[in-house]
Design a protein that fits this description.
Radius of gyration: 15 Å
Keywords: Chaperone
Family: Belongs to the GroES chaperonin family.
CATH class: Mainly Beta
Oligomer: single chain
Number of strands: 8
Order of helices and strands: EEEEEEEE
Helix content: under 10%
Pfam families: Cpn10 (PF00166)
Number of helices: 0
Largest sheet: 6 strands, antiparallel
Protein name: 10 kDa chaperonin
CATH superfamily: GroES chaperonin
Distance between the termini: 29 Å
Number of domains: 1
Strand order of the largest sheet: 6-7-1-4-5-8
InterPro entries: Chaperonin_GroES, Chaperonin_GroES_sf, GroES-like_sf
Structural class: mainly beta
CATH architecture: Roll
CATH topology: 10 Kd Chaperonin, Protein Cpn10, Chain O
Shape: globular
């Protein structure tokens, strides 16, 4: 059972080009695809992360609630709503979007991330 509140019940309305996301990455150690544990203190190069969009402002044009987006974790502002941590960013700070609705889109590059 999920401990996160339903996204459509968030007591917040985003303004302008702002996007509110919940990160897919938990703080702490990670595992490589080969099963090697990577401690949270390990120095790694600039690594982008995925997050789920939970709210968008009225001027956001390329992402919708429920999309997964790729972002740079160094370009983020954190906010807590009802005990859950979210990230706030501008639409232009997102690097990519992954969504079912994009399949078969005529402006798609055909590349997969």
């Amino acid at each position: 059972m999920s401990t996160h509140p339903p996204h459509d019940k968030l007591p917040i309305r985003m303004l302008h080009d702002r996007v509110l996301v919940r990160s897919d990455v938990s703080e702490g150690e990670r595992r490589s695809s080969g099963g090697i544990v990577i401690p949270a203190t390990a120095a790694v190069g600039r690594r982008l992360e995925w997050a789920e969009v939970v709210a968008v402002g009225q001027n956001v044009r390329t992402v919708e609630t429920g999309d997964r987006v790729l972002y740079d974790p160094e370009d983020r502002a954190e906010v807590e709503v009802r005990g859950v941590s979210y990230l706030l960013m501008r639409e232009r700070d997102l690097h990519a979007v992954a969504a079912e609705r994009l399949q078969g889109s005529e402006d798609s590059t055909g590349l997969y991330l």
